[in-house]
Structures are given as structure tokens and as C-alpha cells.
Amino acid sequence: MIEPLSYYIDGINNKDRIVLSRAITLIESTVPAHRVVANQLIEYCLKQEKQSKRIGITGSPGVGKSTFINALGAEIIANSQSLAILAIDPSSTITKGSILGDKTRMYEIAYHKDVFIRPTASSNYLGGIAQNTYQTILLCEAFGFDYILIETVGVGQSEIEIKHLTDLFMLLVLPNSGDELQGIKRGVMELADIIIINKADKANEQQAKISVAQLKSVLPLLNYQNKEWNNIVLQTSSIEKIGIDNTLKYIESYFSKVNIESIRKQQLLSWKNNLVIQLIQEKIMSNKNIKTIIDEFLANDAYSYKQIQKINTQLESLINKLDS
Ligand SMILES: Nc1nc2c(ncn2[C@@H]2O[C@H](COP(=O)(O)OP(=O)(O)O)[C@@H](O)[C@H]2O)c(=O)[nH]1
Ligand SMILES: [Mg+2]
């Protein structure tokens, strides 16, 4: 059953959460008829004037992202602001349990009227995380949330993708020795606008202080690109709620300093880029001749350089035909 476009637009304008949930399901659908309505809905959302603060939160599993979001979220709603929390779910079948776990970590805020929590599924195509998440962000923004917090799984490519979809990128790390610090991927650290040492509980205060000092000494060596903001290191205990109010102050300060227009322009461009790659992939992979070449390549158990050369030549000659 497919609802007309007006159903989704009215629902979003009337702040109907059930319709918002359905709209997210709609944009995740790959059924062509759904895609038509989904694309019209996205176009509508992009024209809206509302602006949420889009924040990406990453860090290794177990570092405390969900607990931190619970604490930060409580602070946000205490300020009478609303928020949507999107948890990126890279392989929904495997991590269903952990999303449920996340919801229990967000016990304080999960059922609050101004909070909306939703796992966002990635699909199996290239850039799937980015596609669905970006469109879900647009839906939530049109709905009118003040904040949109996106929790990544903290593995691989998803962190980098999220950087391109959000206005502010936060990295959570643990208070630990210098050895641990070296384990944090430099690439991710360079993208982070705010680095948070979480689990800086009262009992861990000493260690946290050392970690903050170590990280601060590393900051100048990083190739951080934002000219309007200096990347910073903060510490929090998400369980004991230490440093959370301070973190929110820095978040506000960040948004008052950076040029959101230009960040958004970049986001749109990055999304469009993604979209076009996805389209090309879909079209090319569904071409009969190309499918035959690929199937033949995959059907062969062995691997040789010759095979690669062959498939390369075959594909090239097909693409050359496009030119003529
Ligand atoms: N001591 C302490 N434990 C924390 C803190 N934040 C999170 N945790 C715990 O760390 C574990 C993993 O937290 P979770 O939020 O699920 O991490 P995520 O995988 O990054 O989302 C849970 O047992 C939390 O209770 C903190 O600030 N202090
Ligand atoms: Mg989590």
C-alpha cells in the first residue's frame, strides 16, 4: 500500500511521528513506485527553511556513544529543545540487538515527547549508509527537530561518510595510556571538530587529565581543515553526567562560529555525488552484456592477472561503444 505525497507532507507539517517513521521507511525502500514518491518528498524537504543542528558522533564500540547521547540529550531537552537520534545500522540483521541495547542506554530520554529515536538502515549498494542517512536527516529537519544526533557504528567507512553528512563531527575516545592513543585512526581524528574523552569518571580523573593533555599535544600536528573553528578536546563522564553541560556549550559555540551555509552546500554536493555514483552503478550492473561479463568473471574460482586484463578489456570496449 502506497500513500500519496500529500500524506507524508501533511504528516510532517503536523508533526506526526508515525508519518515521519513511515516516511523514513519509504525513503529506504527500493521499490520503484516508492522511489518516485520518496524523491518528491525529499525535494519538498530540501525547500524547507527549518534548520537542525546535524551532529555526527563516532568512536569504537563500547566507548559510550549511546550513553553519551542519553546524557547530552537529557541536557538538550532540559533546555526545551527537541532532538532526533539516528543510529546507523550497517547490517540490520546482525545489529538489531545492539540497537535495542542502544535504546536502553538512552533510557532517560527514549520515551520523551521531544525525542525521536530511529535506526537507519544501510542498503547493500555503494554509499548506502550515506544515501539513507542523508535523506532521513532531511526528513527530520523538515519535521523541525532542533538537533539531529547521528550515532555511527564506529567502524570503517561509515565514520568518513558521516563527516560529509553532518555539520559537527564528534569523536569519543577512552581515557587511556599513550599506546591506546596511537590506536585511534589519525584520519578520523583529523576530521573531528570536538574530541571527547568519555568515561572520565571521578575515579578516573587522573588518567583522564593525562589523556586530555596528550591529545591536546597531538592537535597541532593534525591536518584539521576548518578555519572557523579550532578542534578541541573535552572530557565527560556520561554516567556521572560530568562535563555534559560544558560540551553542549561548546557545541553551541561551534554553531555560532562556523558558516553553516557553506557546510550545507558541501553536504548537498557530496550527496549528489553519491547519488550519481549509485545511479551509474545500478544502471551499469543491470546491463545484460556487462552482467554476462561479470558473471563469467565471478563464476571462475581461480584468480589470475589475465582474468583481470580480460574483464578490463571487455568492459572498456563496451564503454567505448557509448562514445560512438
Ligand atoms: N564508567 C563509565 N561507563 C560508561 C560511560 N559511558 C558509557 N559507559 C558504559 O560503557 C558501556 C558501553 O556504552 P555504550 O553507550 O553502549 O557504548 P557505544 O557502543 O559506544 O554506544 C556501557 O556499559 C556503559 O554503561 C562513562 O562515562 N563512564
Ligand atoms: Mg551504541
Tell me what you see in this structure.
- The protein has 324 residues and is of the alpha/beta class.
- The chain has three domains: 1-47, Single alpha-helices involved in coiled-coils or other helix-helix interfaces (Up-down Bundle); 48-258, 3-Layer(aba) Sandwich (Rossmann fold); 287-323, no CATH class.
- It is built from 14 helices and seven strands.
- It has a seven-stranded parallel beta sheet, sandwiched between helices.
- Strand 2 (83-89), helix 5 (92-105) and strand 3 (115-121) form a beta-alpha-beta unit.
- Helix 2 (17-28) runs antiparallel to helix 6 (128-143) and helix 13 (288-299) runs antiparallel to helix 14.
- The relative contact order is 0.11.
- The protein binds guanosine-5'-diphosphate and magnesium ion.
- The site of guanosine-5'-diphosphate has 15 residues, from helix 4.
Mind sketching the topology for me?
Blueprint: H1 5-13, H2 17-28, H3 32-46, E1 53-58, H4 65-78, E2 83-89, H5 92-105, E3 115-121, H6 128-143, E4 147-151, H7 157-163, E5 168-173, H8 178-183, H9 186-191, E6 194-197, H10 205-218, E7 232-235, H11 244-257, H12 260-285, H13 288-299, H14 305-323
Helix pairs in contact: 1-2, 2-6, 3-6, 4-11, 13-14
